[in-house]
TrEMBL record:
It comes from Novosphingobium cyanobacteriorum. This is FMN-binding negative transcriptional regulator. InterPro entries: Split_barrel_FMN-bd, TR_PAI2-type. Pfam families: FMN_bind_2.
Length: 199
């Protein structure tokens, strides 16, 4: 989390929306073999937890149950050029959105894993055009074998550490120029977020 309090947000609904919208992140934990990270789809339960699944062969899988871990979701980001400021005697920086969630992890039972997979599939299939794919399209034996190869987990979030670094520490006219510059440089989502913060 960025140390400047100007870049923090206490808006829990915004945090949940970021997890839901991005839907993908990283799980970090310390293991006896050293620090490890896994990249995985994430599902917010809406009540302060995040669910995910990993391959049983993943370096984290056998260590996660009962440990404190960190889940991280990265939103849009982009380079900020000093030429976009009224006073260009400044340094380049990077604007970005990120959310760290710390909490205790518990391994899910098979029913919980099945529910996670169904919900993840339904949520993401709903974003696509056409008839949605559902898990009942798989033969039961095939689905069972695939579920045997993964493990489901739930991280109960005890600390939310968001960073919404969107040039809030700059004057409104500089923020507007930075948003325009980011949009022109190929970062329209970040520019839109900047334009949405209060002046």
């Amino acid at each position: 989390m960025h140390p400047n309090p100007a870049f923090r947000s206490d808006d829990h609904a915004l945090h949940q929306a970021l997890v839901d919208e991005i839907g993908f992140g990283m799980i970090f934990a310390t293991t006896p073999e050293g620090p490890r990270v896994a990249h995985t789809a994430l599902l917010s339960t809406g009540d302060g937890a995040v669910q995910f699944h990993l391959s049983r062969g993943n370096a984290l899988t056998r260590h996660l149950d009962g440990v404190t871990a960190l889940a991280v979701v990265n939103g849009p980001d982009g380079y900020v050029s000093p030429r976009w400021y009224a006073d260009q005697a400044q340094v380049p920086t990077w604007n970005y959105v990120a959310l760290e969630m710390e909490g205790r992890v518990r391994r899910m039972d098979r029913d919980g894993l099945h529910g996670l997979l169904e919900t993840l599939s339904a949520r993401n299939e709903a974003r696509l055009e056409g008839q949605a794919w559902t898990m009942d399209k798989m033969p039961a034996a095939t689905l069972s074998r695939m579920m045997d190869s993964i493990a489901g987990f739930e991280l109960e979030v005890v600390a939310w550490r968001p960073t919404f670094k969107l040039s809030q520490n700059k004057p409104a006219d500089d923020r507007a120029r930075v948003a325009d510059g980011l949009a022109a440089a190929g970062s329209p989502a970040l520019a839109a977020l900047m334009r949405g913060i209060p002046a």
